[in-house]
Amino acid sequence: MTKPSGESDAARSSGPQSHQASFGTAPSALAETAWTEPEHRSLVLETVVSPFHCLYQDALFFHAESQLRQTRSELEASRLARAAFVLYLSAAEALVHQAAVELGRPELWPMVADPSRPLPLAECWRLLPAIVAESPAANHRFDPTAPPWPQFSELLALRTAWAYPGPPPARRAYYRSRPDRPDEFEPMEPHEIPESLEIPADRLRLPKTGLPRDPYALRPHHLDTARGVLDAAIDALDRRLGGALTERRRHRAEPTRLIVPHDPPTQGSPL
User: Fold this and answer.
1) Burial of 255 (0-12, 13-18, 19+ CB in 10 A)
2) pLDDT at residue 35 above 50?
3) Is the dihedral of CA 193, 148, 83, 81 positive or negative?
4) Coil, strand, or helix at residue 132?
5) SS3 258
6) C-alpha pair distances (Å), 59 with each of 84, 133, 224
7) I need a surface site. Which of 2, 194, 226, 254 has the fewest CB within 10 A?
8) Where exactly are the structural domains of the chain?
């Protein structure tokens, strides 16, 4: 299985990177200034953070680590996969809320991005083009039944199921003993359901994406699916916005500037 690389065209990245690396040329500017300023003078680097960029990079890191741990320990791989999945969906949430504030009409963006009146994430993604000034969304018919929207809805539904677990019957998961090691159990696949149990296949897997409902059953290859769906949803939303969502990498931009504080004026001695 290959290591996650960059995103799709709409959300392209070179892969996991440190926060310092996202500053671009700022560190070199810092080094140049350090040669010319007195040693005692402190320098300040100011940046405007993109939570989407930060969280997506973290998700890529845990995604890659999950794949690397797969051969050593499925338990570790699953734990890292869950972390990556939650981060991917948190990045999706940050993306739409940030876009609403930056692109939406002043009187309308609070409909989507007011934390005191939160909307379901699926509604935020659906409404964003309608609140953006000069949005071309009217020329693009939104079909919620066309890919990637049903698949994206399943991603959101899975996260909701983890956050709002429901009664015990809704949380039942099923495991099957391994034929070669009867004392070990692994998540049951739909085709392995014994007829006598009458467990519906969608009790184990979501029908559109095939993602497991049981969080302990999440594996690295499920992350490949989830990330592909998220990237496709970003692409589709960007098209509905006429490219404004990712124009000049706006969703990833973290502009920085170097500040050289001036020494405070020396107070004169009283006569």
Assistant:
1) exposed
2) no
3) positive
4) strand
5) strand
6) 4, 31, 11
7) 2
8) 9-163+218-259
Cα 245 from Cα 225, distance rounded (Å): 23
User: What is the number of residues in the chain?
Assistant: 271
Can you read off the two tokens belonging to residue 14?
Answer: 């070179």
Cβ atoms of 80 and 228 closer than 8 Å? no
Other C-beta atoms lying within 10 Å of the C-beta of residue 267: 6
| 234-to-32, 140, 267 alpha-carbon distances in Å | 38, 15, 57
Q: How far apart are CA 38 and CA 34, in angstroms?
A: 8
Angstrom distances, CA of residue 77 to CA of 3, 93, 190, 268? 13, 25, 22, 65
Q: What share of the chain is helix, strand, coil (3-state, %, to 5)?
A: 50, 5, 40
User: How many angstroms separate the CA atoms of 123 and 97, rounded?
Assistant: 11
- Give the residue among 99, 112, 140 at the shortest CA–CA distance from 10: 99
Contact present, 222 and 81 (Cβ < 8 Å): yes
- 90-149, pLDDT tens digit by residue? 999 999 999 999 999 999 999 888 988 989 999 999 999 999 866 555 456 788 899 999
Find where tokens 């677990």 sit.
Answer: 165
**Per-residue pLDDT at 28:** 42
Nearest Cα to Cα of residue 214 among 204, 202, 224: 204
Q: What is the mean pLDDT of the chain?
A: 83
Give the whole-angstrom CA distance, residue 88 versus residue 60: 8
With tokens 């095939």, the residue in question is: 210
Alpha helix positions (H), the chain: 26-36, 51-69, 74-103, 110-113, 121-131, 149-163, 220-240
